[in-house]
Amino acid sequence: LATLTTEGPAATLTLNRPEQHNAMSTDMLAAAHRCMDAIEAKASPPTVLVVTGAGRSFCAGMDLKQVIIEDAGSIEVPKSLLTSLAKLTHRLRLLPSVTVARVNGAAIGGGCGLAAVCDLAITHADSVMGFPEVDLALCPAVVSPWLVRKIGVGPARRVLLSGGTMSGARAHELGIVDRLVETSDELDDAVDSVVRSLCSGGPLALRATKELLNTLDGSVDLGVLLRGAELSAKVLSTGDAQARLRARRK
Prior knowledge:
Elements: E1 2-7, E2 10-15, H1 26-40, E3 48-53, H2 64-67, H3 76-94, E4 98-103, E5 107-108, H4 110-117, E6 120-124, E7 128-130, H5 144-151, H6 153-162, E8 165-167, H7 168-174, E9 179-181, H8 187-199, H9 203-217, H10 222-236, H11 239-249
Parallel strand pairs: 2-3, 3-4, 4-6, 5-7, 6-9
Antiparallel strand pairs: 1-2, 7-8
Helix pairs in contact: 1-3, 3-4, 3-10, 5-6
């Protein structure tokens, strides 16, 4: 459900549920955490970690099957999923490696959050990105801190309260994406170029710079993310949210 491959000083973490557009289930997130365990166990972590999705999508957000509550009042599975996502984003941010999101296709909700938490994000003009949580009566509390740090409070407020989705080109204009290519056919060459450039730098210098930036922007605070997971789960359990999720699933 998530795989890790290594080539020289670079590694790639691939979300691997292509038939479900790499929607986040508890099992897929657990697999991603195991990949992170493997990276963190290395004596010399990769200089660069590319994060991407198998197939046509990057990550379509939460798996609706797991966030639709069948037993009245039971939010344990959604809360577990959101907590796991919160911890995964924190681990990606604190990883010594420079993280590069290869946004090959749709990056929605939590998927767009994964792109935002990476140090750099690259996509093509026609990819679909965004945070449509409010359209579904949900609260994007886990990913909000990362978007605020990425594009600033004012722009993040507009994006999150407006909901909906946008093109990769628009995401690039807003600063959610750092580099844009016109077509998906150009994406691999662009990612390879960025990875080669990063790997030519000094690993210790890159690590120290990332640690400094994380301290400056408050990324080390896991507590705000865990509180966000709890808030998101609470809002998700409401009747309005559940009705909209059921309608979307149909």
